[in-house]
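Take a record:
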Amino acid sequence: MPAYTMPGLMTGQNTNDIVKKLVELERRPIKRWETENEYAKMQIQIWGEVKNLTTNLQTKTRALVSFTAPFATKSVSSSEEGVITGEASRAAKSGNRALEIIEMASKHQLSGVEIDTDIRLPEGSFTVYSGKSKETVTFPGGGLSELSSAIKNMAGSLMETSIIKIDKDSSIITLTSVKTGRKNQLQFSDPNGILKLAGIVGENKAASEDTKQLLSLDGTKAKVWDLTKFKKSELETDKLTQTEEGIFLKPDTAYSVPIAVTEIKERAYLEVEVIGEAPAVMEMGMSFEKEGSVRNKFLPISKTESKYIFQAGDFASDKNLTGIILSNAATTPIQIKSVTLVTPQAPGTAEPLKVLQEAKDLKIKIDGVEITRETNDGIADVLEGISFNVHKVTEEPVTLKIHVDHAKGSALIKEWVDAYNELMKFSKEITSVEKNGKISDKKESDDSKAADISRDFWDNKSKSGLLAGENSILRLIASLKTTANSYYPATKENGFRVLTDIGISTGAVGSNWEKIQDGLLQIDQEKLIAVLSENPDGVRDLFASDPNNDAKMEEGVGIRLLEILKPYNQYASGIVTSKVKLLEESVAGNNKKIKEHESHLISFESKLKQRFLYMEQGVGKNKSVGNYLQNNMPRGNGGD
């Protein structure tokens, strides 16, 4: 009987080595799943970058199609450097204006006289006025430093203060208004004599009475005011009438009544007295001369007792009043007894002792017209669409230049082109295929223990993009090219229809054809600057326009591009999100298979070892029996 022997034992192989080899063969599916996971994770990273680049392009495109896109931003400068700076909106008209800075606006600066440094000031209060504001300082008593602190704490919004020590025994206090302009000069009321003892003001005087001027209204020259709102003003039966008792206004009427030209002083107001019933609120106004033309101010005012108060000085200080606008929106007639111009006296009752600098207004001339303002900064009500700051007086007239600022629009377009090219280059790279090679992902049967992703597959993947053949990316590349090279309707005269019109193309005439085919955009900076300077609105319309005039942007390079990018970046059901989700599910599935197979390998290895142990025991037993039989069986005689 032949003995049963193991091949491994016959060849001298160790049983453990044989078990390891068998387990390793059984491990092959794990290696394949791990390789597939590695490939899937790389794809997830690539899809993540696709999302980043499409989002970036989406952001840059939205900046171009936004209503605030700075294509038509204009800048303000002067022919002499440093005279004026500012910004202009799209409404500003480009061109040059003659400009002369006569006087800068300045703050009111006061200085006290020398007083004893150790002076003790009494308890009390005083009031500080600047423009329309006032602050009352309650002083508990003390030295100069306590007075300075009280002013900073209670009137710091109106003036700044400091103490200058002249020598060891004497000091002075200086005061400076926070705001510039003649109206903002500092005035003081000092009933307790605190500021006088501090050397700042003189004797406190009694306040004088207001000045009142009864205005003579000429009703015979009254003109209809705002017929669209006060519809009965033209009816002969409802016209304004004037008697010795006053002016009578019928319901639903309004008139502008001329007066003798009268100057409106600071803080002056119109006091309108009525007789009989009158509404709680009445609309009234005034006409006044400002900068060479007649202006109107018309607004609702409330009644106090039998009078209405209209703050004329708030709108036309130092201007000439030329007319009064009266109206009646009530259902019953109104009788106006009188209109009085009241000019309050200056609130200050104590004059400063020493003025270091007068409070002055800015004085400028634009095209020969003199204009005054309280401040040197943020002047936005002189030229339409322009806000500017004045920095110094001019010795002679200079040129105010208002021109399109192409820098912001150019930078915005460059960022958009860069974002477009980054997405295009990355998309082509990840979908590229080697010209002389073919991608093969053929695998051996999953039933075979040798099944694995082939070497050819990975060799080809190293020579081509990981998303080669991915239709969604190939479709994106094609759509980007089509959008960049399409014609668009020009909604305005001299508009642009294609990107090449503004200096953006895939290459200049005569460029390498292969580079043009790549679809990357190039900018002719000189041409782009020229069109942005001459026709910024045309550039804007090329990216986003409203051909139907329905207040909705529906056409243009930017609008189409946003439509193309939208499916890729949708959060819930976007292309990128869906692709990543499928890959993550595949990785999770493979990880589950790996875990289950690893558990199987532990059991498989244990069974192999047990079987080899039984076999080795059986072989050993067979050997013992064989040896016994061989040694104990009788041998026959050759002669028998």
Notes: Residues 154 and 548 are 59 Å apart (CA to CA). The chain has four domains: 38-68+408-433+459-568, 74-100+366-403, 107-209+350-354, 211-343.
